[in-house]
Task: inverse folding
């Protein structure tokens, strides 16, 4: 039950980043209206979650000296790279996430991290047994 809530939080964060950061956009089918955009954002959020679950831990481990040296600020670069990777994966279709460079990805990664942090406070923690 926790995973769908986290996907919805990611979808809201990606949608807000596309609104607030110039250079980040969501391409959706015009004939399907707003529901088409919602479906595209949800699919992009699932892809973004998968990229964060598989690639981000490996990249963080490999760049651990830089993360320690910069007191964690390099994690912003890693977030930007995850957003760029998600955009590259969604370029395989006509719909999805578009990011126009590194700096929009950095700002978008920061927005997504902050929104997920705020919304994550409302997602119940997994039960301990």
Result:
């Amino acid at each position: 039950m926790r995973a769908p809530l986290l996907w919805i939080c990611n979808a809201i964060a990606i949608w807000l980043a596309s609104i607030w950061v110039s250079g980040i956009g969501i391409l959706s089918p015009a004939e399907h209206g707003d529901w088409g955009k919602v479906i595209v954002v949800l699919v992009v959020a699932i892809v973004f979650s998968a990229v964060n679950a598989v690639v981000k831990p490996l990249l963080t481990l490999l760049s651990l000296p830089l993360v320690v040296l910069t007191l964690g600020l390099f994690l912003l670069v890693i977030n930007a790279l995850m957003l760029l990777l998600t955009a590259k994966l969604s370029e395989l279709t006509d719909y999805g996430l578009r990011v126009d460079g590194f700096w929009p990805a950095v700002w978008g990664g920061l927005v997504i991290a902050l929104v997920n942090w705020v919304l994550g406070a409302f997602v119940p923690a997994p039960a301990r047994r």
In short: The radius of gyration is 15 Å. The chain has five helices and two strands.
